[in-house]
Design brief:
The chain is built from 11 helices and 11 strands. It has a 4-stranded parallel sheet with strand order 1-2-3-9, with helices on both faces. Helix 1 (4-19) crosses helix 10. By secondary structure, the chain is an alpha/beta fold. The chain folds into 2 domains: 4-106 and 226-254, 3-Layer(aba) Sandwich (Rossmann fold); 110-224 and 259-284, Rossmann fold (3-Layer(aba) Sandwich), CATH 3.40.50.
């Protein structure tokens, strides 16, 4: 499935390979496959790749990683944009994977994101969360978010989707019930972010997201992953694999520094005054 965050991760990964002497079209062949969110197609792609003599495979996002890990136990698999590799049954533990899979997690700083939400919308009492209940990464994030919300005295209203076609109705179902909408790094919902934002901004309901591409499109803010940097970090791990390191003994890595991003256009639309404490955030405007 394509959306800006996943595309940025792939871009960062290939940039690191190039910086280390592996350049597509010269001494590197890249077989790029995209199932566009269709599971049967994804399984077919995984079977096809597992039958080829590949130096390694980059699997972006949890569904791709799961399909690829099920298809081969021999080819090294680098993962990125996977929230919880253990819950997804890709590795035995993040510290000691014990399988042919390693890479990077995009686990969000959810507690900090909810603190940001509270700072920008101090009167918030109810938070709507829109997600695909079929995605393991989303299940993990929502469980954490509900715990954080409870600690902060906030009520959560959930709306689940099974396809991008459900996103508009799901958003419409919560806008009249909540003060803020939270969108985790859910592949399906993020790919349909313009639909969420159109409904939410029209209803004057702020959207806090798990990553910055939603903010770029018109969401209010995030403290989130820089996916291009995450892809670069995964690329550094790939170089180690190409040089002989074994995935089973390479710990899963996470991003250490997160970007605070605020959409000035959205803040103005919603009449939200950005506190002085957030003046050092990165500000973007909706084009």
């Amino acid at each position: 499935m394509e959306h800006p965050a996943l595309d940025a991760a792939r871009k960062g990964f290939l940039a690191t390979l190039k910086a280390n002497g592996y350049e597509e079209g010269k001494n590197l062949t890249v077989d790029y496959e995209n199932a566009q969110g269709d599971q049967p197609t994804l399984n077919t792609i995984a079977q096809k790749l597992s039958a080829e003599k590949l130096a390694l495979i980059l699997a972006i996002a949890t569904p791709s990683a799961q399909a690829m890990a099920a298809a081969t136990k021999d080819i090294p698999i680098l993962i990125t944009a996977v929230t919880d590799p253990v819950a997804a049954k890709l590795v035995n533990s993040n510290e000691n994977p014990g399988t042919n899979v390693t890479g990077t997690t995009d686990m969000n700083p959810i507690k900090e994101q909810f603190a940001l939400l509270k700072e920008l919308v101090p009167q918030v009492k109810k938070v709507g969360i829109i997600y695909n209940a079929g995605e393991v990464n989303s299940q993990v994030q929502v469980k954490i978010a509900k715990g954080v919300a409870s600690q902060m005295g906030l009520q959560v209203v959930e709306a689940t989707v099974a396809s991008t076609a459900d996103v508009q109705q799901a958003t419409q179902s919560v806008v009249g019930k909540v003060d803020v909408i939270y969108v985790p790094t859910d592949n399906m919902v993020v790919s349909a972010a313009p639909t969420v934002l159109q409904v939410a901004n029209q209803a004057k309901v702020p959207v806090i997201s798990g990553e910055s591409s939603v903010v770029d499109k018109g969401g209010l803010a995030t403290i989130g992953i820089n996916y291009e940097n995450l892809g670069k970090q995964t690329g550094e791990m790939a170089i180690k694999v190409l040089n002989g390191s074994k995935p089973e003994s390479m710990p899963i890595e996470g991003q250490k520094d997160f970007d605070t991003v605020i959409n000035r256009t959205c803040a103005d639309l919603l009449g939200i005054k950005v506190p002085d404490a957030l003046k050092k955030a990165k500000f973007v405007e909706t084009k």
